[in-house]
Prior knowledge:
Blueprint: H1 9-21, H2 24-60, H3 64-77, H4 81-94, H5 97-114, H6 117-131, E1 136-140, E2 151-154, E3 157-158, E4 167-169, E5 173-180, E6 187-193, E7 198-202, H7 221-233, H8 238-254, H9 258-266, H10 272-305, E8 313-327, E9 330-331, E10 340-346, E11 349-354, E12 360-364, E13 367-381, E14 386-397, E15 401-414, E16 417-440, E17 454-456, E18 467-488, E19 496-502, E20 505-509, E21 512-525
Parallel strand pairs: 1-7
Antiparallel strand pairs: 1-4, 2-3, 2-5, 5-6, 8-13, 8-21, 9-12, 10-11, 12-16, 13-14, 14-15, 15-16, 16-17, 16-18, 18-19, 18-20, 19-21, 20-21
Helix pairs in contact: 2-3, 3-4, 4-5, 5-6, 5-10, 7-8, 8-9, 9-10
Amino acid sequence: xxxxxxxxxxxxxxxxxxxxxxxxxxxxxxxxxxxxxxxxxxxxxxxxxxxxxxxxxxxxxxxxxxxxxxxxxxxxxxxxxxxxxxxxxxxxxxxxxxxxxxxxxxxxxxxxxxxxxxxxxxxxxxxxxxxxxxxxxxxxxxxxxxxxxxxxxxxxxxxxxxxxxxxxxxxxxxxxxxxxxxxxxxxxxxxxxxxxxxxxxxxxxxxxxxxxxxxxxxxxxxxxxxxxxxxxxxxxxxxxxxxxxxxxxxxxxxxxxxxxxxxxxxxxxxxxxxxxxxxxxxxxxxxxxxxxxxxxxxxxxxxxxxxxxxxxxxxxxxxxxxxxxxxxxxxxxxxxxxxxxxxxxxxxxxxxxxxxxxxxxxxxxxxxxxxxxxxxxxxxxxxxxxxxxxxxxxxxxxxxxxxxxxxxxxxxxxxxxxxxxxxxxxxxxxxxxxxxxxxxxxxxxxxxxxxxxxxxxxxxxxxxxxxxxxxxxxxxxxxxxxxxxxxxxxxxxxxxxxxxxxxxxxxxxxxxxxxxxxxxxxxxxx
Length: 526
């Protein structure tokens, strides 16, 4: 009888599978699967595009509460940079500044990966603009309150212990901070925070809860004791009995929490039971890794979102105009040698003395008029909020006169407002009406002139000018109040901010006072 070698089982199985694959139903199922895989991305993209269009239309109408969720769902279905930009813009208009700021950071990172430098710069600038207005909340936990098992949440989201005591960006509005721990009474507090505001909340020591059930013994101890007792009672089947008992405890504990289940299985014995506690312990660490990575990415992205300019050169230039009030009541108006005056030197005689700038002076009426000019600030940024340098302010007074002053200056930023002080010294001139000219009487002859210290000069009628330019050296100070109209930080030389400013100025002249109220529009480069 002839015998043939048997074919290997593997070859038979493969050929059988091939025959089944050639059946009509198998081909239909495979085609349907391939079609679904090809169509699903297209369907998701179409849905995302429709949602994005709806969201943008609603945003234009001002219906932000309806627009933002649609754009967010569009981004979930099809994460694109254009959708993320629309979502961040919607949240910014909605007043969710911290949310929008975080999205601009993500957009900057996505644009950098795509090689879109223009979008990256735009996202950084938008994020930097928002960062200056972000409210920041600090949740601190004193040592006395840091009991074992303490869990702190902000609006229901856990606050990691590593971030306790650190200021964190948050959206403006009402927020709830709560704390809880085993065997302790829960604590809650509400906090309201505005744009640019900084607040801190301290978690108090939680009071003990007398009505709470006593804490159960650690899950490992009970199964371990039962396993040891089972091993003593039945040496042949001790390990198996301990394993089953521990497994039963693990399942029972699983109804209360996964951690107890892991512990129960850990006590099950030599094999799988020994590995279970290691896996159960490793679970929280593995779950925490994405959060830590996300936090690390946010810390890395945050500096890039707001260009730091501490230590950089600062230059501000702008146009200014306003009112100039000259209260200089005495001075000279040029050559006074054409005039003379007389005073008594003897009981029956008088002396006619010539005028000059040392013994004669003119008197003037106050001069008030508009002026136009400019201002400049040159300095250095000690920090993002503190600039030190020097400021110059000058202008021409319509109707005759000028103002040219300058001195050391300091500016401090508070939200969208810059506040500053400047010490000023310089020259001021005003074209004012002349009311007369007087000559000085020597002090030793004041008694012979009936106690008078000066007398009117001998001037022919009409010889005095109607108006004259009087000048004086003045010193004083100015207060700066500037509103940031547009903050435009970038990596180029145009980085800076557009400011609307006012510099109320008060100065003391050698003879009188000067008051100025200039207002201007300028750009501060940093």
